[in-house]
Amino acid sequence: MSFAGAVWLAVQENLYRGTSGGPARRSSGSSSSSSDGLGEESRGCLNSLDDHFLSQCFHLSRQCLAFLLDFIKSRLRQGGSGAASTEAMTLATLYFCAHGFLPRKITDLLGLERSSANEAVSIISTVLADMAPSFITFPVGYNDRMGVAQGFKNMSGIPHVVGVLGCLHIKVTPPPAEESLFLNTLGYHSVMVQMISDADGNLLSVERCCPGGALEQAVWERSSICQEFSSFQHGQTWVVGGRGLPPGRHVLTPVERSQIKSSAARRFNAAHSQVLTSTQNVFGSLKTRFQCLRDLGVVQAGALEPVARIITACCVLHNIAKKFSVPLPREPVLEPVHPAQEAGGEGEEDPFQYMEKTKEDMIEMCFGNAGDEVEQEKDRHKQNGALS
Fold first, then answer.
1. CB of 125 closer than 8 Å to CB of 310
2. Residue 206 to residues 136, 167, 202, 311, Cα–Cα distance (Å)
3. For the segment 101-120, what is each residue's pLDDT rounded down to a tens digit?
């Protein structure tokens, strides 16, 4: 769930203690010579720019940027002179994430040597990616899981859903010898990253990226979050997934068209589609705020780590921006749905097949006769409104 920036900032005080080696960050009224070194002088360039310019350049608010600068500085523990400032390196990286390129006018404005700009992006994106365990977290406690599940229940009527599963595809130029590995089902070359988000669009899980031609089922089954579900670390809960994923293994997929034999199944599929569409919104928001994710350029053979680092960094920034309620720079465009790949494993014994029966029982309970009564009640309200 999203919180106002100031409230969420207070929650992160323990993170400051863990990374700065000193006391929590002081309030804005404290002396700038505090022992943790996170005073106003560390944000000289930021303070000289107006809010509109900051929003246009970095697609983030001043408060969000100030938080990031302080947090990253505490991670780097940079103190001496001679190296490029943390502030300049961080703002250069955030500009690159927001626009996908880094022009000379920005590096000059930040006082950053052009020759060191690429190294700055590499260093800061690594710091941001390493922050993922603090800012991209899956609900582990019962109350946390039920809080997330309530959001999906309110959205769709489907119970016990703790996330919506999808794979984000990002265009790349692959190595010539590996083009077929990166060719996705929409016909362009990409890397793909499996993600899980909640009903508010916060990212709960981000896996390592792989070539865009990989099977979603294989990516899911190799993921650490799948192993957690298989060992019931997240209880009897579901993640909502598309048709390219195997049903019955903690993944709630739509009822196959050939198997739809009741109004309950049709209503469930409509609710499932509503939840699944939310991941298109999340992916669209990511590519709107962080335009570097529209095309990450050339990928070197056997070296996905640099692009994986940028993607994870943007995911961390996405969650932080949501916590600070930073609006998108423009209306997002829904990410197109990739056609389902044919899942393998037919004829294999599935130890989680019993969950398909659980799914059928849930559909009948939540979308069966009770669903008919809800529809009838809606019709009565409409009729009463028309008569009045």
1. yes
2. 8, 10, 11, 9
3. 999 999 998 888 888 899 99
